[in-house]
Amino acid sequence: MLENTFNTQNEMGFYYPGRILSGAGTRNKIPELIRGQGPAVVVTDSLFAADPLLDDINPVRRITVAEEPNETTLLSTIVEMPKDTAWVIAVGGGSTIDTAKAIAAYLRFGKLRIRDESAAVGAPHLIAAPTTAGSGSETSRFFIMSDKDNGKKVSIRSWANVPELAVLDPYFLANSPASTIALGAFDAFVHLWETFVCRNERSPFTDAYCLSGLPQILRAIHKLQNDNLTLEDILALQQASSSGGVAISNVRTGMVHTLGEALSSQLKIAHPASLFVFFPVVLRSYASEVQDRVTQLDIVTQSVMPEFGPVTIETLCGFWNDVFEQFNLMADIQDLIATSSICTDELLNTIARDTVLAKENPIDLKDKDIQWITETSLKRFTVSLQSDLVAAMQN
Ligand SMILES: [Fe+2]
Predict the structure, then answer these.
(1) What is the CATH number of domain 178-394?
(2) Would the pTM count as exceeding 0.90?
(3) What would the pLDDT profile of 117-131 be if each residue is shown by its tens digit?
(4) How many Å lie between the centroid of ligand 1 and the Cα of residue 68?
(5) Ligand 1 centroid distance, CA of 217 (Å)
(6) How far does the centroid of ligand 1 lie from the alpha carbon of residue 232, in Å?
């Protein structure tokens, strides 16, 4: 009923139809929970395909995911699903959870492209145990797949996609490379940040998630930088990531995501890296309009992490810049963009399809502003642009 309700500053809703179980060892609750309750299908990735947890779950089928889901592969996988599947259990990162969500959607509703269906009732039940902290897919109402005809990414949005149970166990990230943890944390940070500064759709309900999660991410990644990240810090990252999934499901992501996703449609770039390309220029573009938000975040951050110092747009940009430098993520992005051919006109056409962006961005946006932000961001990475306008600007 409320699928298509948008918040205004006079009418605010909030919804989350799932449960979260978090803590060290909580993964072992999954086999207990499903034992004797019908056949289970496990969706996982190669990193966790041999994890002892899967044997304990004892699934009738194991599906190993190697990449973001695409519609054709999903449909052929689903044909082979047992009709009496009672549980779909994801143990993996964002693409793995998205695949499990797609399978569950089809088994429940007979199609992948669901939209207005309410929270699912009955089998198959969907459980997500994320092995990365960032996408928030374990708590969000979205999954992304590529279209079977044109290969373009399609975002499927429905409350029926939210896993009934998200299990956050730091065990899954204990051996993750620092760069992987940093990338995921940055994605979660941007989810919470963009929810926090969204002009109309934000609410006191989502502010609570943002003001809790943003300082936790800064604190954990600061410890990662100093090589003293603990399991408690990893758990804090997982909780912040799941908070981000709930937050973006109730509000929306903002300009950093819109621009990053447009870039991803031309370039094989990791999602968090695509966000980083635009992050500082976007934040600086609306800095003057979000000062009250920054002040609130500063107050909370000082209590959780005084060593961060004052929170400003500049210190946030500087912090993430240092993180990307330290873990060699910056060099990777520079190499990728410098060796790619990016068509800015096509990029701007893709961005223009986001009709809600102008309404929810902290400041009014005109096409020329988006163009300036896009081109300035890309120029930082010495890209070879194909736009005539950029050539003119450079001369
Ligand atoms: Fe994201």
Answers:
(1) 1.20.1090.10
(2) yes
(3) 766 667 899 999 999
(4) 14
(5) 15
(6) 23
